[in-house]
C-alpha cells in the first residue's frame, strides 16, 4: 500500500470516529490505535485534522479549562473522566480543540465507504476466477 492510499484510509477512519462522537486530537489518536492497531502519532494526526478542516469535512471548537467541565464526559475520554471524578486539587489547565464532523464530511465519508465497498467486494469474494 503506498503512502497516498494509506492517507486516504486514515482519513476515512478519522471521519468515521468523529462521526460517532465529537472528540479531541489525543483521543482520536488513542481510538485509532485501538481500531487499527497502528500507533499513529501527533505528527500524522494533527496535520490530517487540519487538512480535514480546510476541506470543510470537520469543524473544530476550542474549549478552555473552565468550559471543559461543561462538556459531555464521552467527548473527553477516559483519562479526563477519571481526573474529574477524583476531585483532585490540580485544575485542568489545558484547553482542548474538539472536532465535529460537518454535513460535507458526512457526505464524503459516505462516498468513501461506497468506493471502498466497490474495491473490496471482489477482493473479499469467496469465488476467485482462475
Number of strands: 3
For the record, the count of structural domains works out to 1
Q: Per CATH, what is the topology?
A: Arc Repressor Mutant, subunit A
**Unreliable stretches, pLDDT < 50, 5 or more residues?**
83-91
Strand order of the largest sheet: 1-3-2
Distance between the termini: 24 Å
The structural class is mainly alpha
Q: Specify Rg, calculated over alpha carbons.
A: 18 Å
Sheet with most strands: 3 strands, antiparallel
> Percent of residues in beta strands?
5-15%
Please provide the ordered H/E string of secondary-structure elements. HEHHEHHHEH
- Estimate the mean pLDDT confidence: 79
Topology at a glance:
Layout: H1 3-20, E1 23-24, H2 25-36, H3 42-54, E2 58-63, H4 65-68, H5 73-76, H6 78-85, E3 96-101, H7 103-124
Report on this structure.
The protein has 130 residues and is mainly α. The protein has one domain (3-120): Winged helix-like DNA-binding domain superfamily/Winged helix DNA-binding domain (Arc Repressor Mutant, subunit A), CATH 1.10.10. The protein contains seven helices and three strands, in the order αβααβαααβα. The protein has helices at 3-20, 25-36, 42-54, 65-68, 73-76, 78-85, 103-124, and strands at 23-24, 58-63, 96-101. Strands 1-3-2 form a three-stranded antiparallel β-sheet. The protein starts with a helix and ends in a 6-residue tail after the last helix.
Question: What attributes does this structure have?
Answer:
mainly alpha; three-stranded antiparallel β-sheet; 7 helices; Arc Repressor Mutant, subunit A; 130 residues
